[in-house]
Design a protein that fits this description.
Length: about 120
């Protein structure tokens, strides 16, 4: 059974940092591209970052470039997202996804809430 469990969200002031984690099980984590996606209030899901199986390739949406860093530990089957210099517009539920089809609920976890507010 595929399981993805996000954690690390919370309330942070603008300019602050958070580190999200996604613990996975039930599939061959090291063989999949992994994605972070988010859903901002009143909006649809959007991808945030992605990382290749061996971490050699990473991608970010323009609005988070230079502030967010995606990483993974294949030995621990865990995905991470370091978020620095957070802005109010980063407020969202953040999901990790097995592969690019993050719109499919079977491919993602339950999400973790990130709120950036003073």
């Amino acid at each position: 059974q595929v399981q993805l469990v996000e954690s690390g969200g919370g309330l942070v002031q603008p300019g602050g940092s958070l580190r999200l984690s996604c613990e996975t099980s039930g599939f061959a984590f090291s063989t999949w591209w992994m994605y972070w996606a988010r859903q901002r209030p009143g909006e649809g899901l959007e991808w945030v970052s992605r990382i290749s199986q061996g971490s050699k390739q990473r991608g970010y949406r323009d609005s988070v470039k230079g502030r967010f860093t995606v990483s993974r530990d294949n030995a621990k089957n865990t995905l991470y997202l370091q978020m620095d210099n957070l802005k109010p517009e980063d407020t969202a539920i953040y999901y990790c996804s097995k592969g690019a089809d993050y719109h499919n609920p079977r491919n993602r976890g339950q999400g973790t809430q990130v709120t950036v507010s003073s």
